């Protein structure tokens, strides 16, 4: 059976008009996993009985245990619609916003997003997040409203109430969609009449849509009656969920031939008139190979598996391909597809328009562009949030150390929102990620899947340092006193910081383009013309003119500044949002006297002095928090936010629950999940989402700086110049 399906997939691979690349995206617990299992069972990939129990998409053991989907796992299946068989490549996306990076990457590889919303809960914060990710990548949405059985059995709703409830959900989703689309975009709102909305029960495996109701003659009244009379098996047989949803997918999501012409300009900023651009837009299977990696997985036998989308050419065993961001080429060892979570190697190549699983790409990481010709890589994938929390991990047994190091390197490759570092002083390994749960999942995975017992430290929040005003021009002097740099610092505008974070400004883009992007973000023309270097979200502007030897020394100046920005003057935390202006410099005639040992400390000193003069402050990461609770627990739940230096912004009724929305510092949110559980006797559901950095209140600055310095083994007293704190 499996072999037959593989053969059919291979046949369909060459017919891009019959291919649909899709993702399922949902708020946690709304039923994405159950729906995915339905689709796989419907396509004959897993048995009907095991659907819902097998959790075929959750391949990592810890995901099955926790019942949440973490890694983007991928499957291909076939489905007949309109008398033609279709190849449907499904990319799974994680449901928790702690894993936002994975969701964005998955969206890059697909053309349609099936958004699952629980009929009782309605659109939730992560519904909004995943929708935004889809629309920003130019991915078309369709809606599946799940758990309709609950409206019938738990809420005892009649046909009219039910219809009203479903329309409310659709309206909410459409309001979100319309708010997110830019004017030039298409109208991608969803509607029952168009057939871009389906609803049903993933648990009981039935579903309906306008076209399916017309075809089967099933009415709302029939559904209610059959649910109430426990005739669910019959309901499933008469209107199987997988058919209804896969029909919707085949009919309403674009195939690669329709999608790539508009998606390529959106996600790739190379020359739009080049041959390569044409090949990608035209899904040219005989052209140059362009493969975008969205995920790296590990196979105990085959090693690293790069999953991604082929945009042009045909990727084949034996090809030597460039990997963006690295110098050499990698040789493709095998190509294949995913079937029910398992990889199936193919003897043939995988052509443009398909999702492929490729081994041999040793240097690729999630986000890499792999190609047969050197090319501009796909725009760097935007990560919605930077790491905000760090934890140390140590192997309990020294014998496990090499294996631990290897595993950590692997983890960093699979998930670019994770950072792994070694603390040079203590030798301990530090992993940084999106939140407490994110790190917990990673360490569980190391312990359980790799069998390495580890000790972990307390989670530590990552801070930033940022200038608060404009500094005067200050001097940095080299140890031999023969080299001097004169610089000032001022805060960058939020628009410019946003543009940097969106990847619109980078060091390696053409100068003219960068100048335009800077001006568009609000930088004045003269300043933008003197752009010299970008460090994180900080920019160096070189306002000097005709200083001898400066050009050849600039690299060292940049190195010194980079050190100063990586370790800010307050607590050696990274500096963000600073515009550095180099006004003047004195350099020794003789190269020997302006080497690294002289220039680097001088540049570093200049930056730190200017930052201090700009009244640099510690910034702390904050999170948006939303709690849903029965009203009797409202007081204790909102107390959990307020007691954490947080702020409640809004409280309102939604359905039978109260919703509390607010913000709180990430540091104070450590331990929140168990506290809220006991405060509400487990009746609350909650979400957090990283919301950037904000200045730590003045009366905590000195204390917090002291704490961080102590932890880092730095001396306690601050430079007297920092007395403004
Ligand atoms: P995910 O987190 O979005 O992957 O959600 P799951 O598929 O794991 O489902 C979360 C919970 O909701 C599980 O306990 C499911 O059994 C349950 N569930 C999923 N679909 C339905 C449904 O249609 N009706 C009901 N009553 N429960 C459902």
Automatic annotation (TrEMBL):
Keywords recorded for this protein, A-Z: Cytoplasm, Elongation factor, GTP-binding, Nucleotide-binding, Protein biosynthesis
Record-level Gene Ontology MF annotations: GTP binding; translation elongation factor activity
Claim: GTP-binding is one of the keywords in the record: yes
Major localization class: cytoplasm
Gene3D superfamilies referenced in this protein's UniProt entry, alphabetically: 3.30.230.10, 3.30.70.240, Elongation Factor G (Translational Gtpase), domain 3, P-loop containing nucleotide triphosphate hydrolases, Translation factors
InterPro entries reported in the protein's UniProt record: EFG_II (IPR041095), EFG_III/V (IPR035647), EFG_V-like (IPR000640), EFTu-like_2 (IPR004161), G_TR_CS (IPR031157), P-loop_NTPase (IPR027417), Ribosomal_Su5_D2-typ_SF (IPR020568), Ribsml_uS5_D2-typ_fold_subgr (IPR014721)
Claim: GTP-binding is one of the keywords in the record: yes
Family statement: Belongs to the TRAFAC class translation factor GTPase superfamily. Classic translation factor GTPase family. EF-G/EF-2 subfamily.
Record protein name field: Elongation factor 2
Gene: fusA
